[in-house]
Amino acid sequence: MLENRDYTLIIDKSGSMATPDQKGGRNRWTAAQESTLALASKCEQFDPDGITIYVFSGRFKRYENVTSAKVAQVFRENDPSGTTDLAAVLKHATDDYFQRKSTGQTKPNGETILVVTDGEPDDRKAVMKVIIEASRRMDRDEELAISFIQVGTDPQATRFLKVLDDELQSAGAKFDICDTITMDDMEDLSLSEVLLNAITD
């Protein structure tokens, strides 16, 4: 299930990512970098042409064919600042998948989008709408998976991500395509399990 699949990482670089509430006094941005590097190395085993990385706050930037060796450079070029326009970057990533699908450029097993974020998006409803609309364009449940990985312990963010995980089908999604996990949960799982949970949630 993890083979023959594309992987996209979306990384939050909003201002709150500078909050130093991680182990050893590190900020969320540094913690996200470590997880991103680990995820990128793992995804590379299944997606050898490198993964797509988006970094976003109020605007987003897209990097293609990123190998784990290039992850540090992406983090060096970006600093936490700005707002959290998650809906726009998620829409770009899902639209891009369906556009490639329509021209036969996707991998046979589809795509996993991993979103590393610490918080609440600027517009919750817009995020839900993007995910619901994406689910309605899908032909089968496993083809597109979106996994939210929460950095930090903002309780409002946790609640919102739980809604994405559990309640989107009752709000009109065709498939349950979201899975959410915290950085702390991630420490107890292997990265393969994290990636599998995204697909089989």
Automatic annotation (TrEMBL):
Residues 6-199 form the VWFA domain. InterPro entries: VWF_A, vWFA_dom_sf. It comes from the Bacteria. Gene3D superfamilies: von Willebrand factor, type A domain. It holds the Pfam family VWA_2. This is VWA domain-containing protein. It comes from Dendronalium phyllosphericum CENA369.
